[in-house]
Amino acid sequence: MKKPPKSKKKGTFIAIAIGAVIIGLVIIFSYYTEQASISGQRFGENLAQIQEDLKKNVSDYESKLALYQKGNLTKQQILAISDNHLTELEKILSRYESLKPPQPFITSLELFKRSTQTQLESDKLLKQWIETGDKSVKIQSDQLLQQSFDYESNALTSFEKAKKGIS
């Protein structure tokens, strides 16, 4: 029985080594892709929870404002409710900082934060309007509220584009 020449053994070894490296790279790539997907999903779930908490907080506050405007709450009661609402908004705003967005979602996260910050500023002015009755403060509050909606709308558009891989 004849031994194969050393160059054939060496060529076979190189081919096997290259194959092993390719398989290893595919496994590593698949692992990191899966981890990125899990990270992206976790980010999306955490962001959705923050947005849901924000929506609930704002909705609850708006119901209390309606009660105040109907005369069912005193000025002191709505001011205390306003203070609690503003504190909760600040807590919600700080929760954005703990999020670790995948690269494509950074812009949408910044827009969601800006929307919440603008909502907070609007509601501070709304409280000031309740205290003073100054209609110009109410107008400023309404303008900021509209700006907050615009930021949120842009954030949602940016988020959907990032999900689809559109830049």
Number of helices: 4
In total, how many beta strands?
Answer: 0
Q: Based on Cα principal axes, name the global outline.
A: rod-shaped
Largest sheet: none
- The helicity comes to over 70%
| % residues in beta strands | under 5%
C-alpha-based Rg, rounded: 28 Å
Unreliable stretches covering 5 or more consecutive residues: none
Q: How far is the first residue's CA from the last residue's CA?
A: 64 Å
Mean pLDDT: 88
Following the backbone from N to C, one meets helices and strands in this order, namely HHHH
The tally of domains stands at 1
Secondary-structure content class: mainly alpha
Description:
- The protein is an all-alpha fold.
- The protein has one domain.
- Helix content is 85%, strand content 0%.
- The protein has four helices and no strands.
- Helix 1 (6-69) runs antiparallel to helix 2.
- The longest helix is centred in the first third of the chain and has 64 residues, at 6-69.
- The protein starts with 5 loop residues before the first helix and ends with a helix.
- 17% of the residues are buried.
